[in-house]
Amino acid sequence: MARRTKEQAEQTKQALLDTALEMFSRQGISQTSLKSIAAGAEVTHGALYWHFKNRTDLVETLYEERALPLEGIFLDQLQAARQDALVALRDFLLEWFKLVVGKATYTQRWQVFYMQMGGACPELEHIAPQLSEERNRWRDSLGKLIKKARKQKLIPTKTGKQDLVVDNLLILIFSLINTSLTTPALCKGKKQAEQVIDTYLQGMRV
Fold first, then answer.
1. Residues 115-144: tens digit of each pLDDT
2. Dist CA 88 CA 109 (whole Å)
3. b/e sequence 21-47, b meaning 16+ C-beta within 10 Å
């Protein structure tokens, strides 16, 4: 019986996280009350506080448990980079775009944590170090693929400082995703994203 109670508690927690993510993505963190999240998950206000101390705790748990699985995609492309690092870089960026735009959970996470809907809020400021660390991991992944492409002489060694090249790629992928989510008429899905990425990387080739 205790085992079932534990399972039910976990189900309640996940329902609260799912509801919070969906509501935060629609109306922003600051504009969403804990009471409305509990009601949306069809649990009592007390049940929410049993799992989360406050909204900051809820947001932090949500950030940790609904992570983007980019590391696995990167490791796959790092293996592929042995053949052609620039193709691997292209596929990494495209898979990144498809992941965020193509699955509701990751779309919602992106809207909550990377687009900062509704402006800055205390809860996002609280996890600012984690967000910064995550972005640094993304930069490191892109940097490794760029470094391999240079070693393979696929791009000139004088394309500018690597940090600048990586920053420009981050701007590219963020712009594609954000435009697709906010003004889809300007970025018509995977096909257009693929064309933009191909054109950009083609300009980097030797």
1. 865 557 899 999 999 999 999 999 999 999
2. 25
3. bbbbbeebbbebebeebbebbebeeeb
Alpha-carbon gap, residue 146 to 60, rounded angstroms: 32
Q: Nearest to residue 54, comparing CAs of 73, 77, 29?
A: 29
What's the token pair of residue 39? 């009601």
Six-digit token string for 131: 């967000």
Tell me which range, 2-11, 44-53, 180-189, is most confidently predicted by mean pLDDT.
44-53
Taking a C-beta distance cutoff of 8 angstroms, is the pair 40, 23 a contact? yes
Q: What is the pTM of this model?
A: 0.90
Distance between CA atoms of residues 90 and 197, nearest Å: 7
